[in-house]
Specification:
It is a single chain. The protein is α/β, with parallel strands linked by helices. The chain folds into three domains: 131 residues, no CATH class; 120 residues, Rossmann fold, CATH 3.40.50; 333 residues, NAD(P)-binding Rossmann-like Domain (Rossmann fold, 3-Layer(aba) Sandwich), CATH 3.40.50. It has 20 helices and 22 strands.
């Protein structure tokens, strides 16, 4: 601050000196240089400038971040300097020591120096010196920016360049630790620190009559800070926003539950993935679903030679086909409506596509629903997985990727037991083939169809109550994007043909369902248990309090990829296994759910005869 003030005052002296010299040199005949007039005029002008600069607070500016409000304040300070200067000179000398042309010239030189220095600093920072004259929106939703200086600059720059698609008004900046309160960035004042956020919001509400949004930027985008901010914003009914990732989209977007996952950002090496996808023929089953469609998008980005998508839902298939054609118009796409249970149909599609890599994402995954529809779960999750693996082998595929679940570990339900059985079936099918298999287990995916997040969002929008199964229930959560990226990384790891490697994704710490519900309520600017009630409904059919990613007897090995671990497991051959699986599938096709569940308990000992017997009695 002192350096800025010293520079501006010094430039006032230099400008007035230059003006006197110019006046002296421009007169013909060698008019003597008026030393006393120069000295009095310059000192008085510097004193007037110092007073105006201090009163205007311009020394609090960050030069390289100067904006239009700062430029206007500079003009006001120059005018104030003149007002201070004139009476001082009249008092000292009874008349103006500096002639009016000299004064005007000095003011002009000083103005150029003030703006020039700041524009040079702005040019060195952004290569756009004229941005100091661009205005931020003066109307729209009021917001406070919480974060660090660099992130504020990015938001303010993007807001300056926006049209009316997102009208927001930046009221002030809040630092993580207020080292320089009172300063301004692009004319927007720094109001204080995170610790003072509650008081700052109260002041803004009183001053403007509106509750501002709080937008998190830069260093504020950590789960710990977000939860701390949510505690404050929910008391005021303030929404919490974040800087959008896509420069073409809105500058600020609502914070998502996925942003609160306590997991550091992963920087994945995509070269191994490109090695198996770029220029290859790739087939994805269930490619219209939540996870399947994200896998399709990530595959499309790696420029495969051909991308084949299979889905049973005509709407989902239509949606992903339109998206692929819109975003990757040059990509060869083949979309097929088909049931993974239909062996003849699948074999026909696979033999036509001749995929190098197959990603099997088609599945039925709703736990309570599958308890009541055991035969459907068996036919899709077991028979469908077998058909996909066998078709991949028949079509000469090099890789087969199977999406499993944490519910396959010590399953308490039909869905988990069928996915566990599918793991065993795929391992045995690929053991006698030229296909390298990768089976990937992970937990709940935030925002996927049928997941708890859309349910909570609907319940909150309706005013509650938000229903949870049990206050102590926990689940593993991961974003769709991260889960899909790690699935492809795991696929690239498995190189040995005739083997089916089992991998688990690092899901971080399990999250209490109650905490998720409370957080989502706060994200909407409401207070849990006050504005929106939370009710406990009890565990539903087949649900567990806690999920696991591995069995106790399964050892974990580190892999070169952060977030992916390999599971060491043993599959003891059983001559009756294949016959029993076929018997199970036939029983399911004959719609005998009680007998099918009993056989499932035999084939998956972890599911156990006792659990199977309980469900058997309900279904019999």
């Amino acid at each position: 601050m002192a350096l800025t003030l010293t520079f501006d005052i010094a430039m006032a002296g230099v400008a007035m000196t230059a003006a006197h010299l110019d006046t002296h040199l421009s007169h013909e005949g060698g008019v003597p240089f008026n030393v006393l007039g120069w000295l009095l005029g310059t000192v008085a002008f510097m004193l007037a400038a110092a007073a105006a600069l201090v009163l205007g607070g311009i020394h609090r500016q960050v030069w390289r971040h100067m904006g239009a409000p700062d430029a206007w304040r500079l003009v006001q300070i120059i005018a104030l300097t003149v007002l201070f200067y004139l009476p001082v000179m009249v008092t000292l000398n009874g008349t103006l020591t500096s002639p009016v042309p000299t004064l005007l010239l000095g003011i002009g030189f000083w103005t150029v120096a003030l703006f020039g220095g700041r524009m040079v600093a702005r040019w060195r920072s952004t290569q756009r010196p004229m941005q100091i004259f661009q205005q931020l929106p003066k109307d729209g939703q009021p917001i406070l920016l919480l974060g660090n200086q660099d992130s504020w600059i990015e938001v303010l720059r993007r807001l300056e360049g926006r049209t009316s698609d997102q009208a927001v008004r930046v009221l002030g900046l809040v630092e993580m630790d207020a080292h320089e309160p009172g300063r301004a960035v692009r004319g927007v004042p720094i109001l204080g620190s995170l610790k003072e956020l509650n008081d700052i919001i109260e002041i803004m509400v009183l001053r403007y009559g509106e509750t501002p949004w709080v937008a998190l930027t830069g260093t504020a985008r950590t789960p710990e800070v977000m939860l701390q901010v949510l505690e404050v914003t929910s008391r005021h009914g303030a929404e919490i926003m974040a800087l959008g990732h896509d420069a073409a989209a809105q500058v600020l977007e609502p914070l998502r539950p996925a942003d609160l996952l306590a997991r550091p950002e992963r920087h994945l090496d995509m070269q191994p993935v490109r090695g198996i996808l770029t220029g290859a023929r790739v087939l994805v089953t269930g490619g219209g679903g939540s996870i399947g469609s994200e896998l399709v998008r990530q595959v499309a980005r790696e420029a495969p030679a051909e991308l084949t998508v299979i889905d049973f839902s005509e709407y989902n298939l239509y949606q992903i086909e339109m998206e692929l054609k819109r975003n990757w118009p040059l990509l060869k796409i083949s979309c097929h409506l088909g049931d993974i249970r239909d062996e003849a149909r699948m074999l026909d599609i696979f033999m036509t596509a001749r995929p190098d890599t197959v990603i099997h994402a088609a599945a039925l995954k709703h736990v309570p629903l599958m308890e009541r529809h055991a035969c459907e779960a068996i036919l899709t999750n077991v028979a469908g997985a077998r058909i996909a693996a066998q078709s991949a082998v028949a079509a000469g595929a090099h890789r087969f990727v199977f999406i499993s679940t944490d519910k396959a570990v010590d399953p308490d339900n039909v869905m988990g037991a069928t996915k566990r059985l599918a793991e065993l079936c795929i391992g045995r099918i690929l053991a006698d083939s030229n296909v390298a298999g990768a089976m990937v287990r992970f937990g709940n995916v935030l925002g996927s169809s049928g997941s708890v997040v859309p349910l909570f969002e609907r319940q909150i929008a309706q005013g509650g109550p938000v229903t949870i199964t049990d206050p102590d229930a926990t689940r593993f959560f991961m974003t769709i994007e991260e889960a899909s990226a790690l699935v492809l990384q795991a696929a690239a790891l498995q190189k040995n043909a005739g083997e089916a490697g089992l991998y688990v994704l690092d899901m971080g710490a399990p999250i209490p369902i109650r905490q998720l519900a409370e957080t989502m309520i706060r994200l909407k600017g409401k207070v849990p248990y006050v504005d929106v009630a939370i009710e406990t409904m009890g565990l539903r059919e087949g649900e567990k309090l806690h999920e696991e990613l591995t069995y106790p007897h399964e050892a974990l090995l580190a892999t070169p990829i952060s977030g992916v671990q390999q599971v060491c497991y043993e599959d003891t051959p059983n001559e009756l296994f294949s016959k029993q699986v076929l018997q199970l599938i036939e029983t399911a096709r004959n719609h005998q759910p009680a007998e099918a569940v009993r056989l499932l308990g035999v084939l998956v000992p972890e599911y156990g005869s006792e659990r199977a017997e309980l469900l058997y009695r309900k279904l019999a």
